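Retry 2 of 3 after timeout on previous attempt. Resubmitting structure tokens to design endpoint.
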């Protein structure tokens, strides 16, 4: 009998409180099988860096200079130096050629630091790596369009506007790449 009373009590409770059903899926939620794509300030995305640069500059310079005068025979000392016609000439030629090339390949995760009025994103990121006392650092800043972000939340560096990529290093090897003060001074003098 006590079971019947408990069962009747449960039925009365169920009838007095209406049941509401809802879905676990919400229309604004992301897919369960993919990463969310960066959409606003503070979101992260990965920039795939594939940059090759080449620069070539050549210059040639030719200059000349001349000075001359002639003394005609005449009165006094000019008779002694008849036919004397000192001449001065100076000529210089120089040429130069500069050729540089560089390549950087890698990936760096950056943060959206500002959403511009146009809807584009300003991004910034720094990646530092230290191996055997050699510290290398990649810094990247630029502006991207939201529609250029791939489904896997990456963007190629060629799609960035106003991009600035710097790659610096410090340590024993990097120090040996720099000229010493004595070397700089001798090159300046000579």
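Retry 2 succeeded. Sequence:
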């Amino acid at each position: 009998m006590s079971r019947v009373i408990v069962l009747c009590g449960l039925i009365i409770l169920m009838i007095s409180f209406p049941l509401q059903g809802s879905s676990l899926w919400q229309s604004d939620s992301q897919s369960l099988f993919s990463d969310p794509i960066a959409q606003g300030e503070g979101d992260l995305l990965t920039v795939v860096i594939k940059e090759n640069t080449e620069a070539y500059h050549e210059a040639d310079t030719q200059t000349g200079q001349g000075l001359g005068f002639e003394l005609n025979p005449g009165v006094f000392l000019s008779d002694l130096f008849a036919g004397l016609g000192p001449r001065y000439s100076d000529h210089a030629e120089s040429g130069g050629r500069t050729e540089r090339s560089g390549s950087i390949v890698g990936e760096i995760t950056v943060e959206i630091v500002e959403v511009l009025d146009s809807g584009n994103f300003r991004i910034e990121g720094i990646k530092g790596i230290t191996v055997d006392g050699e510290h290398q650092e990649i810094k990247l800043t630029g502006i991207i369009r939201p529609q250029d972000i791939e489904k896997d939340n990456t963007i190629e560096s060629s799609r960035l506007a106003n991009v600035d990529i710097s790659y610096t290093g410090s340590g024993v090897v990097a120090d040996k790449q720099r000229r010493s003060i004595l070397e700089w001074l001798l090159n300046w003098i000579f």
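Attempt log closed. The chain has a mean pLDDT of 78.
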